[in-house]
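Task 17 of the worksheet. Students: predict the tertiary structure of the chain below and write it out as structure tokens. Keep your answer in the requested format; marks are given for formatting as well as content.
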Amino acid sequence: MPGLRVYNFADGSVRQLTNGPHYRPASFAWSARLAVAAVLLLSTQLAAQGIGTSAIRGIVRSDDNIPLDASITIRNLATGVMSKYRVREGRYLVQGLEIGGPYVIEVHRVGFVSQRTVPTTLNLGDAVEVNFVLKRLPVSLDTITVIDSVADLVRVGGGGTVTTIRDELLHKLPTLNRNVFDFLPLAPQLSTKVGAGRTGLSAAGANIRFNNFLINGADERLVNGNVSTGINGSKSIPIDAVKEYEVLVAPYDVRYGDFTGAVVNTVTRSGTNEVEGSVFTYWRSDQLARGGELTSDMSYRRLQTGFSLGGPLRRNRLHFFVAPEIQRLTSPAPGAYLGQPSSAAAKLRVTPADIERFGDLMEKYHLVPGSGGAVSNYNNLSNLFARVDASIPEWNSRIVAFTSYASTEDSRFTRSARDTFYLSAYRFTTVPRMRLTSVQVRTDFPRIAGGHNELVMSHLTDGQDFFSDVKQPVIKVAVPAVDGGIVTLASGTPETAQGRFSHNRSFNIKNEFSFSLGDAGDVVLGAQAESFRIMRGGVAGGYGVWTFANLDSLARGIPERYELRKDLAGSDAPLNGWQYAIYVGDHWKPAQHFELTGGIRADAISFSSHAIYNAAIDSIFGRRTDRMPRASLHLSPRLG
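Model answer:
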């Protein structure tokens, strides 16, 4: 087996590991240095279109079908950024162009009539083919012909199954949550129905943790868990900052890796030479709903507001874009409660007397019981996206720097379970957060046919903390139900919120160089290295769970069961390691309607830390807890 994904049933985390009986951390120190050196070497000596950009390619020939050397000028009319390239042996390839535009392409050759295209927009994953046929002149004249022929503008899509949600569609469709998961069901291979009360993404039936999420080509998925920050009530980036979503399932492009399900690539907006902005506010309330006997007596409030602003810091050279967004949501917790109207759909299965006695007995033990009344949940979101684009024509380079921050306060409480009634003290709050910062340098090499280099550096931190209304053990008592059977009364800090936390970070550096070999195709070479650190702490159930057969047993202090989980040392030991990738691919187009993409990708993972040695586990199970999997190479050939 070349690779293995390990699933932790305790916390649901997933990491891709490699085979081997054990691992010696010191033996891979050289490989980390080697991977970084390879990336830096590629970035300085070499120059594929990035996975978050577009490309223009084509043929320039004379009216008697002779390939021509010429000069190409491409101008982004929105930003004023202009780039010049050379046409060699009648072919050209320009990569690393921001999606959108519009762009105008001009071709010049002494002794021929110059030509200019009409403005055309570029979409994510497209390689727009623009072919020119130049007419000869006996002398050089200052004449430009504008071409507007569908035959001269051919859009070439990417490899694999691709669904692109473009700008014009994204901002016209209704969205309830202003979240990426409102739009992903438009891809027929995806499903967001992954379980009751959960938000996630399953591609072609794969697990929700087997996907990868990108922002402008930089990894955005959580370090521990391989999921997007937009799951379970959170949000990735503001919708006003998004230009396009691209969803790929089983792509055969070697540039894509670290997933077995789908890749969701988000391309963001950027500033232009015009100052543009928008402001929005959405408000929903139960006061706007129809009244009647089915109306709840609990309030529902949802406020979503934010703005976007972009423009030039220096025309044609430096542009900015910023988009903050917040949400404040208050909603009734599902389930029955004391004092609910008689028309309520959920019926109360315990008597008010049992709830009152349960609360009195808990106070006797100096515990906070909470109440059996109505409980409100809240979901507060804060998101910020900011981006700066700089053009440096002297270096034939463009620099993109952006930061994305997401924070959530999500309280969770429910009485939807039929056989358990929780008092309000059982409510807890999760606070997940993520910050991604990335710098990308895109450089053209005019002396190399189609030469383009893209260097991407990104730093990601994510974490999650749990806060409860009280800090005390869980008390569970069985009481008779009003409709027959048994119902459990429960109060205290939920097991999942008993002192747990997660703090993780990663640093990723990736470099891709691409160039054209003419009739032999377009080649891409790439290398990537990622350093990661995962730290999880706390023990679910660390405060204890007491279970009593009835209220009388609770009054006498005689439980039928007591469970307490303890950290015997080492549960918060960090997991440090590296992931590496190196790949080479070729895109060949032997005919107008036939393309072939192939290549090979090699991935590996290694660890530089380990858990502490537990002698008791070793003596009972014969397993050393300080041994880690040994690194091995995972090869992935691609052809399509």
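Marker's comment: The first strand starts at residue 4 and ends at 7. DSSP finds five helices and 37 strands in the chain.
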